[in-house]
Design brief:
This protein has 295 residues and is of the alpha+beta class. The chain is 68% helix and 11% strand. Strand 2, helix 8 and strand 3 form a beta-alpha-beta unit. Keywords: Cell membrane, Membrane, Transmembrane, Transmembrane helix, Transport.
């Protein structure tokens, strides 16, 4: 089983455990802020399911209907996760508003805080793990899920502050006020995930450092070619698509130009995991006298 899929399954289990703990904290206290925290955790469970499905789909090999693979399924999942974060923010805001209108005293507040803190610690550890592993395995779904959990951590910290203030001051409206502030932060986090995922769906180019690496590899390995130009790149999940035009002498044999392409492709694949390369060979009169100079 692919590691990304195993991590996604683990995320589902962790999210269920955290939801149970947070709801227990609300059940003990009756706090609106703690209820809001539990509501966001429901979104975490749904998000974990979306990640499992998207990682599974993205791992499928290319087929007749999808010759370039299914890698973008993860970006669609990330968009869904971002949308769910926004939905969670709106749900929290609604509960905060209701709390302002009908404030309620908090029962067993310190016990509830202790229970809720256990869930927060679990989320901090798992969110950091998801973001690190998502970047290592270039999984947009895992990174988005990790950022969602990190937003949940901020929510939990805000909730703790609110409940502590209520317990110390006796001002029950503070419970809802902190929940409303946390909702604004969660909304901003959801927007960030949506923006990043949408950019990837629009075939965003490889980062500047990776582009520079690609140019250098082509320059050093395209021996006997004249130049390379029209370099284009795009990311799709774990895959980096690279295509460019390679200019060679008009007298060069097809066999020799093919050997050069093989050498360049092998060097690129060794340096960039999951690279899919397309090279268009052109005769020297097609040279642009710009682009990548072959060493």
């Amino acid at each position: 089983m692919e590691r990304s899929f195993k991590i996604a399954l683990g995320s589902f289990v962790v999210s269920l455990a955290v939801l149970a703990i947070k709801y227990a904290a609300y059940w003990v206290t009756g706090s609106i802020a703690l209820l809001s925290d539990a509501l966001e955790s429901i979104i975490n469970v749904v998000s974990a399911v979306a990640v499992i499905v998207s990682v599974k789909i993205a791992s499928q090999p290319p087929d007749e209907e999808h010759p370039y693979g299914h890698h973008k399924a993860e970006y669609l999942s990330a968009v869904l996760v971002g949308s769910l974060i926004v939905a969670a923010a709106l749900a929290i805001m609604n509960e905060a508003y209701a709390g302002f209108l009908h404030p309620k005293p908090i029962d067993a507040g310190w016990t509830g805080l202790a229970v809720n803190s256990v869930a927060t610690i679990i989320n901090v550890a798992w969110a950091g793990f998801l973001i690190r592993q998502g970047r290592i395995h270039r999984s947009a779904s895992l990174v988005a899920d990790g950022k969602h959990l990190m937003a949940d951590v901020v929510t939990s910290v805000g909730v703790v502050i609110g409940v502590v203030l209520v317990l110390l001051t006796g001002i029950t409206q503070l419970d809802s006020a902190i929940a409303a502030l946390v909702a604004v932060h969660v909304l901003w986090s959801g927007w960030g995930v949506l923006k990043e995922s949408a950019s990837s769906l629009l075939d965003q180019a490889a980062p500047a450092e990776e582009l520079a690496q690609i140019r250098e590899i082509i320059s050093l390995n395209a021996e006997d070619a004249i130049e390379a130009h029209a370099l284009r790149t795009r990311h799709a999940g774990k895959v980096t698509f690279i295509d460019f035009h390679l200019v060679v002498s008009a007298e060069m044999t097809v066999g020799r130009s093919h050997d050069i392409c093989d050498k360049v492709e092998e060097a690129l694949r060794n340096a960039i995991s999951g690279a899919i390369i397309t090279i268009h060979v052109e005769p020297e009169y097609k040279a642009k006298h710009k682009g990548i100079i072959v060493v």
